[in-house]
Amino acid sequence: MNSPVVVSNLGACGLRLTLNRPDQANAVDDTLCNVLLSALQEAAEIGARLVVLDANGKNFCGGFDFTGVDDLSEGDLLLRFVRIEQMLQLLWRAPFVTIACSHGAVFGAGADLVAASTYRIGAPGCRFRFPGYRFGIALGTRRLGCLLGEQKAREILLANSTLAGVEAREVGLLTHLEERESWDSIITTVRTSIEDLSSSAMSDLLANIRQDQIADDRDLASLARSAAQPGIHGRIAVYRAAAAESRKN
């Protein structure tokens, strides 16, 4: 059985983590989330300086994997969302530089993965959407606000907007919009730029620049409250039906 995340060495300085569920649009199920969380923890433990996050297949990540969701209890669903938030927080708080390389559909938890990264590269044709509030899940909101500013993040979330790559670059969700052939050059430039930083200096720099030092527990509490609202299965069913109808039109 193939691993949902392929871990490979990125020279002496770090790791490449490749989402590997291409037939499911790399949607985030429980296994992918746990493997990615463990890989990020390992990267911190071994003193990695750079982690690149990319994906196999036509899409970077289609979001939360709803497969079998009707068979999960509300408690199990809550735990899955909590684990995703914990994984995103670890990525956002990482003591190393992260580069997300995205293409195709970048939705939901996939868009949150990109938003939590230090550098955010998109291929032409990529598109982003943050639909969690459509089924009542408060995930990643503060991080999006940090990147885009409160007003722009508010507008995107209220309208459930789909951002094409050009607009994502304009609003600051992406730091680069380049053909995939150029990605290795960007990664090399970033790697070279941090060579003269000690691990402790880089960790301090990344931590001190953030504006939400005490927000993790509040974000987790907000997510838990949203997921614990009665009727989560019904909200998801309504959302999925609306999404399926939209794809027909």
Offer a quick outline of the entry.
Pfam families: ECH_1. The chain is α/β, with parallel strands linked by helices.
Describe the overall structure.
This protein is of the alpha/beta class and 249 residues long. The protein has a single domain (5-193), classed as 2-enoyl-CoA Hydratase, Chain A, domain 1 (Alpha-Beta Complex), CATH 3.90.226. The chain has ten helices and nine strands. Strands 1-2-3-4-6-9 form a six-stranded mixed sheet, sandwiched between helices. A hairpin with a 4-residue loop joins strand 1 and strand 2. Helix 2 runs antiparallel to helix 9 and helix 4 (141-148) packs across helix 5 (150-159). The longest helix is centred in the middle third of the chain and has 19 residues, at 74-92. The radius of gyration is 17 Å and the shape is globular. The protein starts with a strand and ends with a helix. The model has no long low-confidence stretch (mean pLDDT 93). Belongs to the enoyl-CoA hydratase/isomerase family. This is Enoyl-CoA hydratase/isomerase family protein. Pfam families: ECH_1.
Span of the ends, CA to CA: 36 Å
Per DSSP, the total helix count is 10
Q: Note the main sheet.
A: 6 strands, mixed
The fold-level CATH name is 2-enoyl-CoA Hydratase, Chain A, domain 1
Broad CATH class: Alpha Beta
> How many structurally independent domains?
1
How much strand content do the residues show? 5-15%
> What overall geometry do the principal axes of the alpha carbons give?
globular
Rounded radius of gyration (Å): 17 Å
